[in-house]
Fold:
Amino acid sequence: MLTEENLKKVDELRKRYPKSQAALLPVLWIAQEQEGWISEDMMRHIGTMLNLPFGHVLGVVTFYTMYNSAPKGKYHIEICTNVSCMLRGSDKILEAVEHRCGAKPGQTSADGKWSVSEVECMGACGGAPMLAIGEEYYENLTPDKTERLLESLK
Ligand code: FES
Structure:
């Protein structure tokens, strides 16, 4: 369930849209910021609030990689492997991440520290290859830079 504070944010958001269903994406974001992921219970809660069927909410959550439908590790590494990043060596960045974190795309490391996801273009092609951790982008990566970046995260 959303907190009282977040329910107020949702009420404010709904006023900005002609239909409250249109507020689904930002409401899901609020839920994810609160919990770190979006459970099926939360999807039902949001569906009831916005008058949307559960299947619709589930479809949106599972379509966009920005939403987590399962708990993630302390650090969620999203590696772009789309065209620009692929041409600039994202496969080597992914190898470095897998080696350092002990997790492959779709997995969380055994210690719960790292979750790894392979994602489509994140709009930072000019800095390819890149990855994101939370809301931070790390660009123009090399395997060495990636190792140092991950090493710096405690
Ligand atoms: S292809 Fe990787 S950010 Fe665009």
Q: What stands out?
A: Residues 61 and 124 are 23 Å apart (CA to CA). Helices lie at 4-15, 24-35, 40-50, 54-63, 83-87, 90-101, 143-152. DSSP finds seven helices and four strands in the chain.
